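[Q] Does anyone have a clean structure-token version of this?
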Amino acid sequence: AKPLALTALAPFVASGDPVRLVTGLPISFFRRYKDPLTTLLQQRHTVTVVKPGTGEREEKVINVEKVRVIPQPFGSMFNLMLNDIGKPASQRFITEKIGIIDIGFRTADYTISDKTRYSERGSQSSDSGIAVAYTAIANVLQEKSGVNVELYRLYEGVSRGTIKIKGKRYDLTGLVQQAFQQLATRIAQEVNRLWSDDWDLDAIVITGGGGAALSAYLAPLLEGEVLPMPADQDARLNNVHGYWKYGLHLWGA
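[A] Here you go.
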């Protein structure tokens, strides 16, 4: 976490200047690692930056003066709730109880924001990431073609609906629909069971790159109103945009 955070920060801060940081942790890590991660990052770090191409080395002090760690899916809620200067753009997220389903590649996080407060009871992590559907597609392709296609190489084929293997093109449309429907059913069962006592949920948000892919399959299976995410944004970055807006809300001018 530390090398990755400092690598991301280094290009954007002058040596020694104070910087404030918002980041998130998956639900399964949040309670245990929130304070240790804050302690790890909230200090002065001396790093050596090696410039690409020239190999020139630069010593830099990254002075992280404040850190706020939030449950990862809350980034998507803040992205919807706040505008680009960190001010509330929608009051319903402040006053209502919102369920958030954040589907990534390997995992999915489920959490509840009750008037922006984190509900630990209604939160958990699952291994129901979009990779489950990709694995099912890859298994069928292996049976048909004899080739074990790596999951990351399926992305374009799934998007296009076809994939070429050893000169032969395979139609993925039916496979994708079946795999996505099965995964959506699995996630809906997990969520509806987890939130069975939260009958007073006002709305549900589906987010993450996997969430964008599964939304059409998943939304009809959920018990409650599902809010649309902005169609013009890369859903994989919803949490990141929310961290930025939340930082502006906390510390902006």
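[Q] Thanks! Anything notable?
[A] Residues 134 and 147 are 14 Å apart (CA to CA).
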